[in-house]
Amino acid sequence: CGSSEPGDSAIMKHMERVPHRLLPFAVLAAAACSGGLAPLPVPVGLAPASLEEAAQWAASTRPAENRELRFRVSFQDEQGSAGGRGRVRLALPDSVRLDFVGALGSARAQAFVTGDTSIWADPEEDVRKLVPNYPLFWAMLGIARGPEPGSSVRKVVNGIITAWQFVSVGDTVEYVREAGPAGRLIAEVRQNGKRIGRVETKFGPDGLPVSSRLVVTERPAKLDLTFIQNQKAAAFAPDTWTRPAPPG
Q: Residue 68: beta bridge partners?
């Protein structure tokens, strides 16, 4: 990208040569084992709602300005466990530069995501190992994705809890948002009736995420993020959104 912010023309240029529906967090999702999940705590009474209302709610979960987040990573599966650290640079409305490095400098990975599309990821072979979809990725940052056009949308509000259900073709995305000084966002995704994963992100009194857990059910695994920094971003460098040149 030639500017300090991701622009539409630059994004479309990258999209032409990158497969869609890939989650660049994949390098982390070789993650950890998990037991069975309890039922999602959705209050009784889901009722039809409009796409516009759902989109407005999802937009309200985004921060008010560009952010820079740093976090520690812990993941585990039946083969073992590992850790690392990461950095996210978020440019509104929905562009993310992700950098990850494993313990002792191993397993480095970088990616650029916009909305529900992987613009680039390096190394791409690690990206393709990922299972969870984009609503789960964004939920780990405390952000909900709006429904796809033509989705069936339902909603219920019960006290401090707001729940949404978005159904599009064979995919179902459900969100539960608990308000309050120590609230949380839970997101669960099912494809053709089969649950593929759930995210639970917890917030601090300032409304910023403090921790997040991704549980993958098809290949039992879990991934934990502990956020150690979340601040308003300064101007992003022009090369933030550019794919790194190959070494050598």
A: 89, 231
The pLDDT, as a whole number, for residue 36 is: 62
Tell me the pLDDT tens digit for each residue of 224-237: 999 999 999 988 99
CA–CA dist 127, 13 (Å, integer): 20
Least confident interval from 113-117, 120-124, 128-132, 225-229: 128-132
pLDDT, position 102: 80
CA-CA-CA-CA torsion for 230, 115, 218, 70, nearest 10 degrees? -20
d(CA 130, CA 153): 27
DSSP string, 164-226: EEEEETTEEEEEEEE-STT-EEEEEEEETTEEEEEEEEEE-TTS-EEEEEEEETTTTEEEEEE
Q: What span, in angstroms and rounded, lies between the C-alpha atoms of 217 and 222?
A: 9
Measured in whole angstroms, how far is the alpha carbon of residue 83 from the centre of its chain? 19
Helix (H) or strand (E) holding 156: strand 152-158
pLDDT attached to residue 162 = 96
Distance between CA atoms of residues 46 and 165, nearest Å: 8
Report the distance separating Cα 175 and Cα 57, nearest Å.
11
Predicted TM-score of the model (pTM): 0.82
Place of tokens 């040569």: 17
Write the DSSP string, 66-117: -EEEEEEEEEEETTEEEEEEEEEEEETTTEEEEEEEEGGG-S-EEEEEETTE
